[in-house]
């Protein structure tokens, strides 16, 4: 799943510091939630799972225990969460928030990070993945297994508890609940489309096209990665989201562009620079590159794709990449990138609110022509 972006520099650094401080408080509140009578064992499961020595060696974890919350909520860049703070600052036209504003913005940011953790725990199970953020997927941890399904559900329910505890008296509380529910539904529906399109054992490239790719990306990634942080900041600012449909459309389009970049970098990015080796071809992903290839290929070229796409054999992967080169997909991408940027800038500058323009441009300028 794609990541959102945040502002750099002093403002970004201060946002990160403030954001990190709030996590411990929210975690403690979860562990003391009066709605459930925690036993010692259930508290330990959420905050401290003992590991025997051989498990530590297998997991390469240099500690005597792991924590379900820390393991899954922490470990990422927290870009989505911190984007709430930075977007809120820009909407208010200030570099400094008061104590309450900082806490509320950080708390909503952490709700997005909790949502991300919930998605990833279940996504890894569905994809039968091995690692996440440089460590074993949660369900791969000995003693966890499919208990991870319930852990994902617990993580999702933590969001509702956090929102209730800190926002119930706010005039926008119902809007926040509706927002998180809607974004979760859109994301889960996008995941469904992705799963049934690329279902293992039923590989069929004829299902892949630009419309399907766009719909998967928009619903699975763009709403929760790009729209949700800004929508939270707008609600904090006292705005009615019904008045910002154009902002939603721009952010969803930006999220789509971001995922196309990801698909491109998976094939053409420098593994040492982007931090991973691309596997979209081997994994039979409905990538922007393969749907572009299918649109442009003649019958012989399509035959090469059908015979080689989705196979782990390096020779098969090489044949697909050679075909991409033959079809000049690098140039196709760069043209798409240029057109996308120009359209997004035009749409952003058409918005009457300069503060909103600043928020949208800050997102766009961090991702335009990114290399990782």
From TrEMBL:
Gene3D superfamilies: Farnesyl Diphosphate Synthase. It holds the Pfam family polyprenyl_synt. One of its GO terms (biological process) is farnesyl diphosphate biosynthetic process. Keywords: Isoprene biosynthesis, Magnesium, Metal-binding, Transferase. GO terms for cellular component: cytoplasm. Belongs to the FPP/GGPP synthase family. This is Farnesyl pyrophosphate synthase. It comes from Oryza glumipatula.
């Amino acid at each position: 799943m794609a990541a959102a972006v945040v502002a750099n520099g002093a403002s970004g650094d201060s946002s990160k510091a403030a954001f990190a401080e709030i996590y411990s408080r929210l975690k403690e509140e979860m562990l003391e939630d009066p709605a459930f009578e925690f036993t010692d064992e259930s508290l330990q499961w959420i905050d401290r799972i003992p590991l025997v020595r051989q498990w530590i060696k297998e997991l390469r974890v240099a500690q005597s225990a792991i924590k379900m919350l820390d393991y899954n909520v922490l470990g990422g860049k927290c870009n989505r969460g911190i984007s709430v703070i930075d977007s809120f600052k820009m909407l208010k036209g200030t570099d400094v928030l008061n104590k309450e504003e900082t806490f509320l913005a950080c708390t909503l940011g952490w709700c997005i990070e909790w949502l991300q953790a919930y998605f990833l725990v279940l996504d890894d199970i569905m994809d039968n993945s091995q690692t996440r953020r440089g460590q074993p997927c949660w369900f791969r941890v000995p003693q966890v297994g499919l208990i991870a399904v319930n852990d994902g559900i617990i993580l999702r329910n933590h969001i509702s508890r956090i929102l209730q505890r800190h926002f119930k008296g706010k005039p926008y509380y119902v809007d926040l609940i509706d927002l998180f529910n809607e974004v979760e539904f859109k994301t889960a529906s996008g995941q469904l489309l992705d799963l049934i399109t690329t279902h293992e054992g039923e590989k069929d490239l004829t299902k892949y096209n630009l419309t399907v790719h766009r719909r998967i990306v928009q619903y699975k990634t763009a709403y929760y990665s790009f729209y949700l942080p800004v929508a939270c900041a707008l609600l904090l600012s006292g705005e009615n989201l019904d008045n910002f449909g154009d902002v939603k459309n721009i952010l969803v389009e930006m999220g789509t562009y971001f995922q196309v970049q990801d698909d491109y970098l998976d094939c053409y990015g420098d593994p040492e620079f982007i931090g991973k080796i691309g596997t979209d071809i081997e994994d039979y992903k409905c990538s922007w590159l393969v749907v572009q290839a299918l649109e442009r290929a003649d019958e012989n070229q399509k035959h090469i794709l059908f015979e080689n796409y989705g196979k782990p054999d390096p020779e098969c992967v090489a044949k697909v990449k050679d075909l991409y080169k033959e079809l000049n997909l690098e140039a196709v991408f760069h043209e798409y990138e240029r057109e996308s940027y120009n359209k997004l800038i035009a749409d952003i500058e058409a918005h009457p609110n300069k503060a909103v323009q600043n928020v949208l441009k800050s997102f766009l300028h961090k991702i335009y022509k990114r290399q990782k």
